[in-house]
Amino acid sequence: RDDSSGGWLPLAGGGLSCVTIFKVIHQEESGCADFLIHGERLRDKTVVLECTLKKELIYNKVTPTFHHWKIDEKKFGLTFQSPADARAFDRGIRRAVEDISQGCLTSHDEIEVPTDGFPKIAKDDHMTPGCCNHQKYEPVIQHPAVIHLTGDNASVISVKNGQTSLFSEPL
């Protein structure tokens, strides 16, 4: 972010991307779960975001379509195609933080997922590449928008009418 110009600065790259909040169930730990925000650029399948949520997350809804958050000293931001997409993502984040705050569950079967747009889809046959088979990934919510963190910069890809721009904010 360049405070002298009053906004996010464009970076190289961009492209329409899809962001998914995954619940990562550690089966060897009796249902303990982490939540991961995963962003993948649609054009070339490049992973542009891997962010593990923590209960200390600071989440801000700046506008109906722009949200940003901070975990530790890393900043992230998303611009959504619609306010409805942003609201659904916000609900997914709040649900994830609530589950994280409650700690490990005795069984992942006890987890209830609301019927308000958060389908819990088991991906038993589609493990994320590079992961061991002791983890199960279940999408909580999925939307077209993405962020990326590089070095000392937090970045955001702004998605509007299918066009995207990548922005950065030095920490």
UniProtKB/TrEMBL annotation:
Keyword Iron included in the entry's annotation: no
Compartments, as annotated in UniProt: Cell membrane
Keyword Membrane among UniProt keywords: yes
Pfam families: WH1
GO biological process: negative regulation of MAPK cascade
Superkingdom assignment: Eukaryota
Molecular function GO labels: protein kinase binding
InterPro entries linked: PH-like_dom_sf (IPR011993), SPRE_EVH1 (IPR041937), WH1/EVH1_dom (IPR000697)
Domain WH1: 1-100
Membrane topology: Peripheral membrane protein
The entry's keywords: Cell membrane, Membrane
Gene Ontology cellular component terms for the protein in this record: plasma membrane
Listed name of the protein: WH1 domain-containing protein
Lineage per the UniProt record: Eukaryota, Metazoa, Chordata, Craniata, Vertebrata
